[in-house]
Write a structure and sequence with these properties.
The chain is mostly helical and 197 residues long. Helix content is 72%, strand content 2%.
Length: 197
């Protein structure tokens, strides 16, 4: 069995902290949700923090627990190989990117809450470098994630899914998270070469 990098527990702190934040904010109930969710009118009216805060609040406990569980799975796939700084930077970039794309590319999206857009991006950010190094498991999961997004774009979420999370599924956010992760991976791959140039 391959040994984990030194201080690998530290590398889990950001995803653990984010999962805890999701659950704490969910315990705050409706007032917290209303204050922090993405609202297009509020963002355009001078509340830009909602571009980030929207990803930490959820439609209900089932929605929050599903996304916290997805975050735990993503962290497990990373296996402590990403530093806490890398996690923090990726989460901020993906959250901001998804928020901006909702404003620019989805004017019909008047409100949004949930980590799923960022989460889809995180799966790609974690898996792509491993897949490119020939990791078959990473390829399989990465293909499954991309296929899932493609399926969602052409097949509306079922009534059961909407009931489970307590509202509509914003599939565009999943696509935006994936696109932002692709750009982030390309940038991170190119950065060392740019620094040497």
């Amino acid at each position: 069995m391959r040994a984990l990098p030194k201080r690998s527990f530290v590398n889990w702190l950001v995803p653990i902290a984010l999962a805890c934040l999701v659950l704490v904010l969910q315990a705050g109930g409706e007032p917290v949700y209303e204050a922090l969710r993405y609202e297009r009118v509020a963002v355009l009216g001078g509340q830009p923090w909602r571009l980030l805060s929207a990803h930490a609040v959820h439609l209900g406990w089932a929605h929050g627990l599903m996304n916290a569980g997805g975050l735990a799975l993503c962290a497990a796939l990373a296996a402590g190989t990403r530093s806490w700084r890398a996690w923090a930077a990726a989460i901020l970039v993906l959250a901001f990117g998804v928020g901006i794309l909702l404003v620019v590319a989805s004017p019909q999206a008047t409100n949004y809450a949930g980590l799923s857009g960022v989460l889809y991006g995180l799966f790609i950010w974690v898996l792509m470098p491993r897949a490119l190094r020939g990791d078959r498991t990473a390829w399989i999961v990465l293909i499954a994630v991309v296929a899932r997004i493609g399926w969602q774009m052409f097949h509306p979420p079922s009534h059961a899914q909407r009931v489970l999370i307590g509202g509509e599924v914003m599939v565009e956010a999943h696509l935006y998270g994936a696109l932002c992760a692709l750009v982030l991976c390309l940038w991170q791959g190119a950065w060392p070469h740019l620094r040497r140039a």
